[in-house]
Amino acid sequence: MQVSVIIINYNTFQLTSEAVESIIKHTRGVSYEIIVVDNASTECDPGLFKQRFPSIKLVRNPNNSGFAKGNNLGIEYASGETVLLFNSDAACLNDALTLTYQALQWETTLGLVTARLEYPDGRVQHSCGRFPSISLQLVELLRLQKFMSDEQRGRILQGAFFSYDKPLYPDWVWGTYYHLKREVIEKMPGGHLADDFFMYAEDLQWSYMVRKLGYTVKYIPEARVMHHFSQSTKKEKRLNQGNMILQNEDTFLQREYGWTTTKAYYLAKMANFLLMRGNSEHRQHMLQQYGKLLLGKPL
């Protein structure tokens, strides 16, 4: 088995079914298995997945233990030489599994590869990023990116500055489509993915560990995946999600960077938001949140 695909389902039966269907429809060049981990859904009987897709492995998690722990549970049942974490709200647009698997085989130092993520209307999602850095915050603070070429901006700053039309070796990538060599997972502490976060920022943490182990991370535009990435989420829920991300990132930064560097990073972030034009609600909110993190207050 070349690829074990793990999909976490939590009350998203239709979306998860579409994800499975897209993999079956487009995958031609590799052997694969699909493992659906149901995180104690109440929407319907998870057994419906087996009725609809008899060839999949269905793992019933008695508790909703979150994204990271759900994936680790799925990995326990995986037999592939590589492991692909695939979001339930994603769908292959081409034979992405083969393209990312081949990339992992061709480069011995490559530990993690991801695909081009697109909104349903075809717009690209900014799924590649740099690790939090004071120096990069200073680049933006001093507006040094204005003196760079488009290619330099994209390569150095990544995120929304990158065009996503060519390969890139980013620091970290979203967990939406996260294709790992099994050997990388086995070398991580405990032989599994870090799962101390219930949800959000675990992809940043995992990518950091991949790089720390001496492997590279790669984005390839040839592999294409549609990602719904709901933009219609209610404002209150978006704010709660944002707070969880920031809180988890704070835990990650203090553990890996130390207290002093983390606080200096927050000062640089606040300076950037202070110099932003306009007086948007988002700007004010982020200033407030980073101020709380700087002072060690809960969000």
From TrEMBL:
InterPro entries, alphabetized: Glyco_trans_2-like, Nucleotide-diphossugar_trans
The keyword Oxidoreductase is annotated on this UniProt entry: no
Gene3D superfamilies found in the cross-reference section: Spore Coat Polysaccharide Biosynthesis Protein SpsA, Chain A (3.90.550.10)
Entries under Pfam families matching the protein: Glycos_transf_2
Ranges for domain Glycosyltransferase 2-like: 4-125
Keyword terms, alphabetized: Transferase
GO molecular function: transferase activity
Protein name, UniProt field: Glycosyltransferase family 2 protein
Lineage start: Bacteria, Pseudomonadati, Bacteroidota, Cytophagia, Cytophagales
